[in-house]
Task: structure prediction
Amino acid sequence: MAERSQLLDGSPSTELLALQAAVDGYLTAVAEGLHERSSNADVVAELQGLERVGRMLPVAGHSLITTAEARSLPALFGSHGVSGLLQELLLLSPYEAKCRVGAARNLGRHRDSAGVPVAPVLPMTAGAQLEGDVSPEQARVIGQTLELLPQTCPDEDRRLVEKQLVETATKLRPRELGILGRQLVAELDHEGVLSSDAEHERHRSLSLIGQADGSYRVFGRLTPACGAQLLAWLTPRSAPLAGENGESDRRTATQRNHDALADLAGMAVRRDELEDAQAPAQVVVLLTATQLIDRRGWAQTSFGQLVSVPDALRLADEAALTFLVRAANGAILAEGRSKRIATRAQTLALIGRDRGCSFPSCDRPPEWTQRHHVIGWADGGRTDIDNLTLLCGAHHRSFERAGWQCRMQDGLPWWIPPRWLDPEQRPRLNPRIERRSGGG
Result:
């Protein structure tokens, strides 16, 4: 304990004291009406200049964080890692502390145990932030984009992506920069879409962090398919509502999104209120005629998000999907048909027949399943009972990659295993359905 008290008895550098004095002087001038005497052009210049200075200051923080980690200060304080140390010393939230540690590891300059200088992981981004050209948020987007690259991506390609993003950061806001980054990652997908999908699966996450007041903070990363579906569901249900006497909706956009998500959660819990699927969320997907045929590459949703063509076609089982087919120059060639979702009556009939996921040996109940077209909707398959079956999310995503096929026979979904599992490929029926068909 005595050692810890000594750690809190240090003195800031003379350089920091000089910086504090300069900041105090500037804030005093602001309080005395510095900006009130400025022209409009001067106010714009002041905003930009102050932003540039604010972007440069985190560079010093990166250095301090890497130094604290190198000196094992978290262990001396009994903290859980550098993030825990920052939370304790600076009274930061877990999220903010994690962001600062990640930024320091990507952008911080430090020395190794032998005293040799070590360059930042993202040297071009670090240099741009040092000049005030890249904000902390933009730097975070660049780092997150590079994390999306497959682990097999050559270092030369990684440097090229970073260079292009840094050069463009002076013209794009963080979200636009992120979309550009996703496009660059897609162009470098040398191993095909499935490899990129595997990377999205590797990075997927979602955490609900309970707060002291009973509320929750949400953190995570959704796969393109999951995000597109959620956004398509939330968007029409989070539009402003007209209040009584024509009053406008006083909820903010984020509050409306929250309320729409609360509705979705409530629907999932209230299983006795089966939703009529005739009014599904609408997903608009833009792709080329070639992609629609060979099922490769990346499509773009109406929200500007990139999604692999295989994932876009899989969305057709659970969302109303409209394909806009375009030419190489971007002109729209045709509008694909909008998918018809299974009706409430069809869904009830499927529950009565399949009693849950129809995949062999799966015991997931109907509440955990999705409606699947045996002959794909994109291939002309009809939304009829004799072309539909229930599948849980795990089997819906994986059965094709594992080599399974579904065939309807006598109105029942039979599953044909891959040859590596059964050389004779004898069709299998889920025991639940088998008992049912036998009068059980």
Observations:
- The radius of gyration is 28 Å.
- The first strand starts at residue 110 and ends at 111.
- The CA atoms of residues 142 and 165 lie 7 Å apart.
- Residues 344-437 form one domain.
